Amino acid sequence: MRIVQITDLHVGREGEETYGVDVRANFRKILQAARQRRPQYLVLSGDLCYRDGDAEVYYWMREQVDALGIHYEVISGNHDDPVLLARAFGRENLLKGAELYFTRQWGDKMVIFLDTTPGMVSEQQINWLREQLGKLEQEALIFMHHPPLEAGVPFMDANYALRNQADVQEILLAHPYNVHVFTGHYHVEKAVRKQNILVHITPSCFFQIGQLSEHFQVDHYRIALREINWENGVMMNAVHYLGGEPQR
Ligand SMILES: [Fe+2]
């Protein structure tokens, strides 16, 4: 299967000032870049909204994504509201209480989508994840907003890491196969591995964060998507940055 992941769009309300970045233009550009790659599936992995979940922003984004005609899934980030998001994208049926986590069967693979909106994976969801992996007798593919491992990005690790990483890691490490996890949230491009857990952090469509400083620092404004191809038992993935001038 061929998947394109885009993340951390941080779209504001029409006319809202967003650090001088035209996030709406970035969103349109990344969708066009996604379409050019002709994926079977598109995943928007959270932080669709600039700061707080906003129905108006979600409806605007849905219009743009629907127009592509590509099957897509949306998960919630810490700058989203999973209930507003699910309603705007017509996926209320996927809500479990106020959380948006679910699986999809894509070809012969089950894909797991988690909800880390509060900066952690709830106890109810932890139990559900354990059940899902228990049923899966092969490598796992998970999309979640927060990385379940520290990533060597001091500012993000110290301030915004997933709070119950240890609980999540325990479940993933117990899976007898590899667990491929695709995330956003950190606004960096990075691959991190711990035993059978392989985490790929995809850059933002807003700005990228400096990976050396303990303080907030913008690294650059180029935006990117991640392409994941999983065919015949081989998984490859790559980040593609949009060319040309910085997207500012
Ligand atoms: Fe985030």
Concise structural overview:
This protein has 248 residues and is of the alpha/beta class.
Share of residues in strands: 25-35%
- Poorly predicted runs of 5 or more residues: none
Q: From the helix content, strand content and strand pairing, which structural class follows?
A: alpha/beta
Radius of gyration: 17 Å
CATH superfamily: Metallo-dependent phosphatases
The structural domain count equals 1
β-strand number: 15
Second rung of CATH, namely the architecture: 4-Layer Sandwich
CATH class: Alpha Beta
Distance between the termini: 33 Å
Task: Give the bound compounds.
Answer: fe (ii) ion
- Please tell me what the overall shape is: globular
Largest sheet: 6 strands, mixed
Enter the CATH topology name: Purple Acid Phosphatase, chain A, domain 2
Number of helices: 6
What is the H/E order?
EHEHEHEEEEHEHHEEEEEEE
The portion of residues assigned to helices is 25-40%
